[in-house]
Design goal:
Blueprint: H1 4-31, H2 47-68, H3 72-77, E1 79-86, E2 92-94, H4 96-102, H5 104-109, E3 113-124, E4 128-139, E5 144-156, E6 161-171
Parallel strand pairs: 1-6
Antiparallel strand pairs: 1-2, 3-4, 4-5, 5-6
Length: 172
């Protein structure tokens, strides 16, 4: 087993922790004597977990926006190769290649309107995250409109967040 990968990963995590701690200290200093940094009550207290939560904010936004903006390359890059999608019809696509094939017309036709509102999220440190969106997918040219509750599960591979599963449930 090659341990150099694990040593490198551990060093990267230590550096990320140091950077996160430095940022928190700088924020506390900027606030002045006797003041504390403005950290949300829901924010994780572990500096590395705060860093991962901020990284997750970006990853999930890029995931949703890349689909909305027909950016197939970025959308693909944000998914684990083993990802699975369960469509509201019950159809299942396993693996990013199969998912991209199922979504090919979305990226090629570039006519659908995609919007979402976050309803719930949980980020488990730097391991996993789950988010629920209320979504609307419309193709105005043909009068198609579908509302759904869409849940997306992400995993952290040590460097970045990757979507590993999503499932949509059609709403009336």
């Amino acid at each position: 087993m090659d341990l150099s990968h694990y040593r490198f990963r551990r060093i990267a995590l230590v550096l990320a922790s140091a950077i996160a701690l430095g940022g928190a200290s700088a924020a506390a200093c900027a606030a002045g004597p006797g003041a504390s940094a403005n950290i949300s009550a829901n924010a994780p207290q572990n500096p590395l977990h705060r860093w991962c939560a901020r990284q997750f904010d970006t990853a999930q936004r890029v995931d949703m926006e890349s689909f909305r903006d027909y950016d197939a390359e970025t959308f693909r890059a944000g998914h684990d190769a083993r990802a699975v999608t369960v469509f509201d019809s019950g159809a299942v696509r396993t693996g990013i290649d199969a998912i991209m094939a199922a979504l090919a017309s979305h990226f090629q036709n570039r006519e659908a309107k995609w919007s979402w509102s976050e309803r719930y999220r949980v980020v488990d440190g730097c391991r996993s995250a789950y988010i629920v969106y209320e979504t609307v997918y419309e193709i105005p040219r043909i009068g198609y409109r579908q509302r759904a509750m869409t849940g997306v599960t992400y995993t952290h591979d040590g460097w970045q967040w990757l979507a590993v599963a999503d499932q949509g449930t059609r709403l009336p």
